Amino acid sequence: xxxxxxxxxxxxxxxxxxxxxxxxxxxxxxxxxxxxxxxxxxxxxxxxxxxxxxxxxxxxxxxxxxxxxxxxxxxxxxxxxxxxxxxxxxxxxxxxxxxxxxxxxxxxxxxxxxxxxxxxxxxxxxxxxxxxxxxxxxxxxxxxxxxxxxxxxxxxxxxxxxxxxxxxx
Amino acid sequence: xxxxxxxxxxxxxxxxxxxxxxxxxxxxxxxxxxxxxxxxxxxxxxxxxxxxxxxxxxxxxxxxxxxxxxxxxxxxxxxxxxxxxxxxxxxxxxxxxxxxxxxxxxxxxxxxxxx
Lengths: 169, 115
Prior knowledge:
heterodimer, A: 169 residues, mainly alpha, Butyryl-CoA Dehydrogenase, subunit A, domain 3, 7 helices, 67% helix, B: 115 residues, 3 helices
């Protein structure tokens, strides 16, 4: 996607919102849960609005948006360390896969709750959003080795949790 | 190899069952746009709001600094400097005057009477 800033920026902003709102909400939801999702989405898009005039056209907008969304989510988690991500809303009924998937999703949510916000961010970007280690490192502002290490510990923790709950992967 | 296989299976399971966020509330874009505009307009108002206070504080600090520096009277340092200057001037003027009184009166440059 190419962006051209004409000073006004509302058209560009709307294009960014239309193309990336689901991505932003998914990242925020998987890291922070659902209780403050709308507020965090607003905060993220305000940051995008402010940063859009200075955004370089040749940069990768998706990585940039991932970075803003994960930073917003992690900042919120740091400020609200006491509030664990226990506020995930139940998935909407009638979603893909029926009851079995709803149970599995519930277990995945519970597994995610056992991770630190930083590990949830890595799982979100590398597994759910299917970014490469390099892209995730760029979005999180971390070296690739740190991303790999966090991903390794997150996988181990999730695997252990599934084993404890009799879930076969 | 087995570990990589396990990781792939785990990733696939997680991806397949990832939590799905609720859809955005109706009118989210309009609300976000309004909030973004309000927020970007706010800093300018904030700066100008504090401008008179800033100017007043600067004036008071400058005034206080001036009063503290000379307290409205010449300082000891400036007195000493004035004394030295006065002594120098009176010495110089005295020397010049003395030289002038020692010299014979000037003769006219062109003595036309000699012709």
